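Here is a typical sample entry:
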Amino acid sequence: MNHLGIKAIVCDIDGTLLTDDKKMLNETKRTLIQAQEAGYKVIIASSRNYFMLEEIVEQLQLARYGGYCITLNGTIVVRCSDRKEWRHPFMAPQLTYDLFEFSKKNHFFTLFESESGLQIYLPKILRWAMPFYYGIKIRKRYLNIRNLNFRIFGDFRFSPNQDIKVVHKSKKLVGPIIKAGFIRLTPGIDKMINKLRDEFENEFDVIRISRVWCDIMPKGMNKAKGLELLQEELGFGLESMIAFGDAENDLTMIEKCQIGVAMGNAFDSLKDVADYVTLSNNANGIAHALRFFELVKVSHIG
């Protein structure tokens, strides 16, 4: 197929495949479809759940071309054509409770994601946000009647059979929990991350996603682990993949794939380990790199 032996293209979503305003540029879209027409597999690798990726799956025609989605930072892998799944274990219940109590003690705004939906811990200092929460519940009930999907916090999307609720006690959490997210809207997220890592060094990986957000995953769970679940299915492994990313949750696949590409807007920690730094997510960085490595032909987008 090519002189580098690449057979699959792996793309993170936010900050990589999508622009800062959450759009997929036409050149990026057309280049990835062109790559699939040439025989490459396209794999989406995201911290999002599959329901939140459906629009992208449709845009890139992944079901038609035999693509896959690595969801929830590697925990669940989905074959787009028929939604067959491969799974890694979720969080252990006691560790989930410990994480909740840590959030409560340190007044962290925390989201716990499970297959049943999203559970939110709001510390007392943020209880002013409760009217916002009840407004969400009313809107969700309205949408459920019409069997419509539901969005909150911009990119979080839920199906009609999923729920969102505020939880004030650890024993009220409904599991199993797949991953957690900590939000810090005021300065000090680095201090928060260090505190988390010190407390749960052997239990969780704490991954910086943005200036206000970090993901908490079971120790050793990452996007590269998700890609490894596909090796038998695909007949090849990470040595035949090129991966694109911008944040810390992309680090393992950038390091382990045959070619790791950091976006121009990526964290410096990612650029330091990448084989190549491409243009930013707002400048068709994926398409630029695929042409640079001669994996697709140069085409002019009209």
